[in-house]
Amino acid sequence: MSKLFIRDNGFYKNVAKIAIPIALQGLITSGVNAMDNYMVSELGQTSLSGVSMATQFITIFQIFCMGIGMGASVLVARYYGMNDNSSLKKTVTIMLRLCVGMSVLFSVATALFPQLIMKIYTDEPGVISEGIVYLRYSVASYIFQGLALTCTIVLRNVDKVRMPLYTSIGAFFVNVGANYVFIYGKLGMPAMGVAGAAVGTLVARVFEFAVICGYLFFFDQNIGYRLREFFRPVGNLWREYIRISIPVLVSDGILALGNNSVAMVIGRMGESFIAANSVTVVTQQLSSVMTQGFSQAGAIVTGYTLGEGDREKAQSQGYAFLGIGFVFGLIAAVIIMLLSTPMINAYNLEPDAVEIARQLMLSISVIIVFQATNSIMTKGVLRGGGDTKVLMLADNIFLWVASVPLGALCGLVWGFPAFWVYFALKIDQVLKAVWCVIRLRSGKWIKKIRSEKELS
């Protein structure tokens, strides 16, 4: 147990300096989602369920972008620690090119096949109809959201964590204001309902893009990246990007598909279960923002330490992050239990959905302890160490071999109560928490990363 805490106040201060702004930004983002759900719920449970299912597809895109951005961040943090600005810029260029390609792909799919997308998740006609409306008005948002998200991750890795936070605060007010105008028809605008929620989100995404990307491309001095870099050749760095970063993209991408398989199970358990899950997901996001902050801090700090060549220090810090994960998992569980009743009561849910939501909240409060612990390790320390290929395998083996089949059996075949259905769907979080401890102790997670000079 003594390994889980190190006597280095400077370490904890440095981690907190990185993690807290990221966590606060996550809190603002979760607040936006909560307000979206609340305002849409005023239109009725069917509208809430439709938007919830439609955003599952958009979430796939977000996770792919996170994979692109976090994959790049492994290299960015290491090159930043090595003071290798040339390799850093080329890494950003590769990331942006992948992001643009992914945005175009999802935009085309959403524009051409909204009904097919909704039928993947649910067979409820009213839910499908509302979801189609939301998707059609979301087509233009992908490119803005993708670029803002990936550029935010890069800025965090070069000691620019406050500016994305301030941008998210601004986006929160923009989103809420735009939702109010377009959903309910204020300031002379027509009441657009579900379509208005999508338009409000689009306005917020454009705002985020303008501020984040405008800063990175025209003002930032830590990287000095400018738009002309996008069109310059990246040379042999593609090889290192593919070796280190692509497994993160593949891992997160397949994980997104797995999570959508979970959503498919939920979508076929009825409108009440869908609505209840949309409320509990927001509560889980609000309770785990600190975990997200410390996860990214883990990747950044580990990358810096290994960039300086200190393997022993990185191993010691890894155990400290494991202890941080366990502590914040317990805190998140308490927060969920405290928030569950007021959160459920805030939404316009029918009685059977309220009961399901209560069971899901209880289940999440147990799972979150394990999820917080493994998230800080898999998305933070181990990823920062360059252990991306093994993480890709572990993430998806636990999800596809355990969570998806067991959850489907519990929910669609055996008819278990909502508590056990959700626990089964998230059983991979428990298994990964155990595996992370074993992987950390082995020391095999620390990998060498080469610069462009070593590759040439």
Give a description of the structure.
With 456 residues, the chain is mainly alpha-helical. The protein has one domain. The model has no long low-confidence stretch (mean pLDDT 84).
Give the SSE layout.
Layout: H1 9-41, H2 45-82, H3 85-112, H4 114-121, H5 125-136, H6 141-156, H7 162-184, H8 194-218, H9 237-244, H10 246-267, H11 271-287, H12 289-307, H13 311-346, H14 351-384, H15 388-413, H16 418-425, H17 427-442, H18 452-455
Helix pairs in contact: 1-2, 1-7, 1-11, 1-12, 2-3, 2-5, 2-6, 2-10, 2-11, 2-12, 3-6, 4-5, 5-8, 6-8, 7-8, 10-15, 11-13, 11-14, 12-13, 12-14, 13-14, 14-16, 14-17, 15-16, 15-17
| End-to-end gap | 45 Å
Uncertain stretches: none
Shape estimate: globular
Number of domains: 1
Structural class: mainly alpha
Q: Describe the largest sheet.
A: none
Share of helical residues: over 70%
Strand content: under 5%
Count helical runs. Answer: 18
Order of helices and strands: HHHHHHHHHHHHHHHHHH
* Rg (C-alpha, Å): 21 Å
* Average residue pLDDT: 84
Q: Give the strand tally.
A: 0
Entry keywords:
456 residues, mainly alpha, 82% helix, globular
Concise overview:
By secondary structure, the protein is mostly helical. The chain has one domain. Helices cover 82% and strands 0% of the residues.
